[in-house]
Write a structure and sequence with these properties.
- By secondary structure, the protein is an alpha+beta fold.
- It folds into two domains: 75 residues, no CATH class; 263 residues, Cathepsin B, Chain A (Alpha-Beta Complex).
- The chain is built from 13 helices and eleven strands.
- Strands 1, 2, 5, 6, 7, 8, 9, 10 and 11 form a nine-stranded mixed sheet that branches. Strands 3-4 form a two-stranded antiparallel ribbon.
- β8 and β9 form a beta hairpin.
- The longest helix is centred in the first third of the chain and has 28 residues.
- The radius of gyration is 21 Å and the shape is globular.
């Protein structure tokens, strides 16, 4: 098993749990409900054996950082747990890598891309009918109080020290949507994307050129080109397998879409590639509902896979392994840290169909670049 891409859960011992049982670490302890206060500590601290075993062995610097973050949590009424995650072993620069265009350039791209997407989706619909295939209906509806595609996603990945979050975000959205639409679990190669799509490198990139590249090129499987957490070298073989039929943005504004817009996109298209602002508090998240409101420049890509209105939060999938968050996932408050910025969806093409010739003509007509700038 690849040590970078397939993350292995950390198992804590009984001794470690006993050592921390008397030390609550819930960030919003001052706001606990009466029911939570009465609950046994073991029930309250679901991840405490995992993260506190690490904290017992942590350096003085890490211990100080955790203490300071927990103090800030109480002061700012954060509603999430803070602990020594594996993400804190790396710098934010290593963990992120999202490089977005400036707002004016982004909006121009959004308008042109969504115009193309309308035509491409219709061509895909007609093509599927002609080939006697039916897209499976998605199980979520926008009026539901909660819904999640988490069970349809592939295993949590670990990007390692390479700033390739953008590639994992793109492939996470693609893989989840492929399974939902075609009832087939697939595992695509992020390394192939990093090395060959021309969308970025370990120094950063984003999903726009990934999805555009996939309109005319096929991405390989993980088995064909395993992840190495490096830029790698692009080779012409083996041939890829999976391509895209269309993709677009949730909005044409360089801003965070509304909750209603994101829900509509989720139930229409599937998991979404989105941006978010990562901070030290984000790195240290272990559970609960992340509700920091840092307005700094957005630097990371994740996948929205669902929502829960009772929590007022999105369910997101990260690419930092299972040693972070709730086994690699997070609940994040609607709007927190700009979650949802530059949200995009992708429509996979069936693996067993040739590329739609009408789509190729549409691409040519719109002069889309199949090999993105910088590739």
């Amino acid at each position: 098993m690849n040590s970078f891409k397939k993350a292995v859960p950390i198992i804590a011992g009984a001794v470690a749990f006993a050592a921390i049982a008397a030390t609550p670490f819930f960030a919003g302890a001052a706001q606990e409900s009466p029911a939570l206060k009465k609950a046994p500590l073991a029930a309250q601290l679901k991840e405490s054996p995992i993260y506190n075993e690490r904290l017992l062995k942590a350096s003085p610097q890490i211990r100080t950082q955790i203490t300071q973050l927990r103090q800030t949590a109480v002061q700012q009424n954060w509603t999430f747990n803070i602990g020594y995650t594996t993400a804190l072993d790396r710098s934010i620069e290593q963990l992120t890598g999202l490089k977005l265009p400036q707002p004016a350039e982004l909006e121009a791209k959004m308008v042109s891309q969504n115009k193309f997407a309308v035509e491409a989706l219709e061509l895909d619909r007609q093509y599927m009918i002609a080939k006697k295939f039916t897209l499976l209906a998605l199980p979520c509806n926008a009026g539901a109080a909660s819904c999640s595609y988490e069970s349809k996603m592939t295993a949590i990945r670990n990007q390692g020290g390479c700033g390739s979050c953008w590639a994992f975000t793109a492939m996470g959205a693609y893989e989840g949507t492929y399974r939902l639409r075609f009832n087939a679990a697939i595992d695509t190669s992020e390394q192939h994307i990093v090395s060959c799509a021309g969308a970025g490198s370990c120094a950063g990139g984003w999903w726009d050129p990934v999805f555009t590249w996939m309109l005319g090129s096929k991405v390989r499987t993980e088995a064909q080109t395993p992840y190495t957490a490096s830029n790698g070298v692009c080779t012409p073989a083996p041939a890829g397998t999976y391509k895209a039929a269309a993709w677009g943005f949730v909005t044409v504004k360089a801003e965070v879409p509304t909750v209603a817009q994101l829900k509509s996109a989720l139930v229409t298209h599937g998991p979404l590639a989105v941006a978010v602002r990562v901070t030290p508090a984000f790195q240290a998240y272990t559970s609960g509902v992340f509700n920091q409101n840092d307005t700094g420049w957005i630097n990371h890509g994740v996948v929205i896979v669902g929502w829960d209105d009772a929590k007022g939060a999105w369910r997101i999938r990260n690419s930092w392994g299972t040693g972070w968050g709730e086994n690699g996932y997070m609940w994040i408050k609607y709007g927190a840290n700009s979650i949802g910025y530059a949200a995009a969806w992708v429509r996979p093409a069936r693996q067993d169909l040739v590329l739609n010739p009408d789509l190729l003509r549409l691409i040519d007509r719109n002069r889309l670049i199949l090999r993105p700038i910088g590739g």
